[in-house]
Each structure stands twice: as structure tokens, then as C-alpha cells.
Amino acid sequence: MRIHPLTGEFALPADETAFLVHQLPQTRALLGYTLVFCTLFYVAFSISDLAALGYGPTYLKLCAARAVVAATAGTCAWLAYHRPLSLHATRIAACVADVVALACFMFIAVLRPDEFHWHAMSLGIMLIVIYLFIPNSFSNALVLAWGATAVFLALTVTYGRLTAADDVTMVMLLVLANAFGALAARRFNQVSREEYQARVQLQHTAARDHLTGCFNRRYLHETLMRPGQVRAAEHGGLVTVVLCDIDHFKRINDTYGHASGDAVLRSFADLLRRMTRDGVDSVVRYGGEEFLAILPGTDLEGGIHLAERLRTRFADTSVLTDDGTEHVRTTASFGVACADPAADGGHHVLRDLIAIADKLMYDAKRGGRDRVHARCACANDAAGPGRERPRRAGLVNRR
Ligand SMILES: Nc1nc2c(ncn2[C@@H]2O[C@H](COP(=O)(O)OP(=O)(O)OP(=O)(O)O)[C@@H](O)[C@H]2O)c(=O)[nH]1
């Protein structure tokens, strides 16, 4: 997660999107409040139109312009606050409100040409608001602010009745507002992303086993086992769990040392993670040398297929001992269980499946190790819920 040094935003679009999605509720609230606040001031400033122009057609035109801004900003604020706007839509709403407000501001400036020095001050404040308070991307804010500055300076030259010294001061003032606005926005972007980075890092550390990088049991219990967490329907129906236990692991520790045992654990975990689907399946270090794979949208055959591939690949894998002098080889035993997560409203499906898989895995141990035992716990399964399915050559209870 690298932060871009110029914008203060994440350099990778995927990281930036994840951050923005995480921030979306606050972003929508900020956009809503800021637009309402700015609109109130924008409308209140019609008093200054009245003071400068008196009541008449020009004043009414300016009132109409301010009403357009109030209507646009009010609509955007209402949408941001009451509708579940997407990231993209929130940015469009921010840009539309900015563009309409700036366009009307230019119109007002042209109709009050004697006060360009005051308008410059107002624009300076509007630029700070665009950089800091209207949530947008750094590049959008930059384009809007510098675009408004260029248009305003062009209008000053065309309509303003200022001295050359006033023009220079005005340019300096607006450049200053842009520079400080951009620097402050960059710093704000950076600080909020650093905070997010720290939060993600903390969540990652709290959820993972530090030896293998797999999820830990706390994450299993607090997150994965929460009702509704396993949404197999998205992936087509059933959920399958595979419980894996490395065989004779104590012997490896006793023979080659604890560090070599750790290397075997890491090698098994790597294999398991490589063979499962990133972002769909979850791999948990369930105990010392026990691992659990949760496979949403996978039927029993799929679970057995994974366990079999894992079994054969692991049996063929040799891990170098800590001192690099010997190769350690061992096997693993597997319990595979499958169920329909919708069956009991999804409340205890994982807990029950893990219990079944655990029993099957111990059956595999008792049956001689290096084998896969499997069972479907689906209510509509031919063998009935919780009962072992008829043996299928090459699939169930296979070594
Ligand atoms: N190196 C290492 N060993 C661990 C770790 N966690 C647990 N162990 C060891 O794993 C071993 C598990 O031994 P057992 O439960 O007897 O299982 P086993 O020797 O694999 O026997 P079976 O499961 O019946 O094949 C114990 O000696 C634990 O000390 C760890 O993080 N690193």
C-alpha cells in the first residue's frame, strides 16, 4: 500500500478504491453537510448583491443565479445523504455542485464589476473549500480550482476595473490560495490514508497466525462463523469444509527439531492457500498442525477433489530441515464435510460442519492416515443428513 508522494492518495487504484469504499459513509455525510453549509452562505450573500446594486432587474438575475446554485447543491446534498450513492456518483455530485457554484459565481462577478477585489477574496475561500471540504479526488480538485482561477483572472482582465497593482495582488492571492489548498489537501489525504493503512495492518495481524499467514481461530470464531458470513448462494449453493491434520508431526519435531517442524507447517499452509480460491475460500490454522479450509459454493465432490490433490501433492513434497542437511517428508489426513448453509438459516452450519469434518479426520487417522474421509450433511442427500455417503470408488475414504 504505497502512498503517492504528490497526491497523498494510494498509488495503486485497487488500494485507493478499497480505502474510498471504507470511507464512503463519512464521505457522503461530509459532502451533504458541506453543500448545505455552503448553500446557506451562498444564498445569504444575496444581501451583499442588494447592498451593492439595490433592488432591480440585475439584483433579481443574481438572486436567480444563487437559487440555481442552492437547488443544485441542495439536490446533490439530498442525494448524498439519503440515497446509497456509489463512489462514482458521489464524485459526480461533488463535481456538478462545484461547477454550478463556480459558474454562477463568475456570472455574479461580471454583473458586479466594481468589486473584483472582493470577488477574488471570496474565490480564495471557495478554492479552500473545494480542496479541503468537498470530497473529491486530488486531481479533480486541482482541475476545478485552477480552472476557476484561470476563468476568473480572464474575467478580471475583461470586465474588472482594477489597477495593474490590484491585478498583480489578486493573482498572488489566488496562487497562494491554490498552493495552500493543494498542500493541505495532500497532507489530509496522506494522514487519512496512513490511518487506514495502520487499521488494515492491525486487522491483518489480529486475524492471522504469524507462522503460516493463515487466518487464526479468533478470526474463525469472531468473523467466519458469524451467521450469514458464509454466503454460498453467491457461489452456487453448498458449503464444504476440509479439515487437514499433518501425520506424525510430533515425530518430525522430535527428530528434526522445532524449526524444521515450523518449516513443514509453512509448506503445508502455502500449498493449501495456493490450491484454494483467493478471496472466496478461507484457510484457517485450526490447531498446532491442523488446518481448515472453508469452501463456499463447493459440493462434496469438489471438497474431496481438493483434499485428494492436497494429499498427493503434500506426500510428494519434501521440506529442507532447518540446517539444510536433510529433507523431511510426511503425509496428512483429511475430513471433508458438506452442507447447505441455508438449511438452518445459516446459524450453526459451520460449527456443525467442522465437528463432522473433525470426526471424519480422526476416522482417517484411525484408518491408517494419509487418506480422505468425506460425508455430506445435506438434508436432501441420498444417505440422509449427517450420514456417510455410499462409497464412490476413487473419492470417499480413499488413500
Ligand atoms: N514446530 C511446531 N510444532 C508445533 C506447533 N504447534 C504444535 N506443535 C506440535 O505438534 C505436535 C502435535 O502432535 P500430536 O497431536 O501428537 O499429533 P501427531 O504427532 O501429528 O500425530 P497424529 O496427528 O496422530 O498423526 C505436538 O508435538 C506439538 O508440540 C508449532 O507451531 N510448531
From TrEMBL:
Domain GGDEF residue range list: 237-377
Naturally occurring in which organism (per UniProt): Telluria mixta
Enzyme Commission code(s) on record: 2.7.7.65
Reaction catalysis annotation: 2 GTP = 3',3'-c-di-GMP + 2 diphosphate
Record-linked Pfam families: GGDEF
The protein's name: diguanylate cyclase
Leading EC class: transferase
InterPro entries: Diguanylate_Cyclase, GGDEF_dom, Nucleotide_cyclase, Rev_trsase/Diguanyl_cyclase
TM region positions: 30-53, 59-80, 92-110, 116-134, 141-162, 168-185
SMART domains linked to this entry: GGDEF (SM00267)
Source superkingdom: Bacteria
Keywords noted in UniProt: Membrane, Transmembrane, Transmembrane helix
